[in-house]
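Archive entry. Fields below.
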Amino acid sequence: MREEVFKLKGNQSGLQLVFDPKISFETLRNEIQKRLESGSQFFKRGTVIQLPPDMLSKENEESLRKLFHQYGVLFRVEVLEERPKRHTSTKKAKPEVPVNPPEPAAQAEKAAAQPVAEEQKMLVINRTVRSGQVIQTQGGVLICGNVNPGAEIVAGGSIDIRGTCRGIVHAGAYGDRSSFIIADCLMPVQIRIADLIAQAPDAIEKPSYAEKASVKNNQIVIEPIER
Amino acid sequence: MSEVIVITSGKGGVGKSTTTASLGVGLAMRGKKVALIDTDTGLRNLDILLGLERRIVYTLVDVAQKRVNYGQALVRHKKYSNLFLLPTSQVADKTAIEPEQMKQLVDTMRHEFDFILIDCPAGIEQGFQTAVIGADWAVVVTIPEVSAVRDADKIIGRLQAVNKDIKLIVNRIDPQMVKAGTMLDMTSIDDILSLPCIGQIPDDREVINASNQGIPIIEWNNTAAGRAYDDVVGRICGEDIPFKPFETEGFFARLKHVFGH
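PREDICTED_STRUCTURE:
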């Protein structure tokens, strides 16, 4: 990596943004933008970039998040640990979507951190997908909005919904079982990953935390995640 | 400045025509010159709700196909001389009018009126496109039922695809059911539709009574629904009217009645 205003340090769950706290936010933001525009290797769509909390003000964090979003890069402010943080206690098992005990390995975030293959561009949708509308793509999808009941998202890769998901979501639609689905509020009628289908329980409560659906042991499992 | 508003819903039976009739009368009561266009060709009933059925000579189909001028087809309201209805045919079907003909008609009519309200048929086929094409913005009417909200959502998607501004009216709210948690409340509707709301109309038995007599409910200003529609008209005219909490027929509501009279 070049010696510059900021650095990106690889860790287990993604890339960590490292910079000298003395430089102004303006300079930092400009440098990041330059790098994003140059189409550098590190900024493939779907890449996750992390920042430890309290490095920047909330406004500046938000500003960076928006900047990264434009380029399809996920920006997260989170506590960096040796292993990705996970919740194990609060989750209730949903009757028809069994939740397996979490495995100790750092595999929850693994898929998010892996760079997406060249031809698989990440599609970014900046609106609510409404009933009867279908979003179909070969690669992954980032939806900054809700997926309403009656809407359908079909993606060859993974699906990330920054909002409430109440429609039908199908990740890995061309057979990729390592695809996953993340939503701030995951309450779809059906979740499909590759060839697997999970149906929502009859009574579904609105979850208050982000969740991720992925395939484990040939089953679709849902677990809470940190955003 | 004229405004052309389409009243639509996707699902049938949620109160599009009732709403159109009441908004039309309400705007006319405020001195606006208003035209109501019924585009539900083949299943017309806006004329019945306004009590104008017997006065119809020509219809929207005659106008669209250039057999007569729109002025000849307009029916003046009995009570409000600045309110007109352009009825449609009960015989023809929705293919009788092309969307482009409707757009031309609306564009010629708009110079003469302050407001043109277009009553849209249920569904999303040609009738919907015909109704929507000439409008400046849309009112989506829904009721607090999952299926109606779902259809409204679909319609909203269609309207947004053609860049129409949209406002929401939620009709037939039963305050007691909302209170008991057995009916969708405004929060859950807003959660899905997320649109600016200009009307919350309580479920009111008097609406059916009034409709059967050919009187839009807004004329009965002692009814809950009539007052709620009057507020909607005010909001359309740009007034800032807060939403009033519904009166459930509880103890305090009855007490208020006793002291009120």
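CURATOR_NOTE: The two ends of chain B are 42 Å apart (CA to CA).
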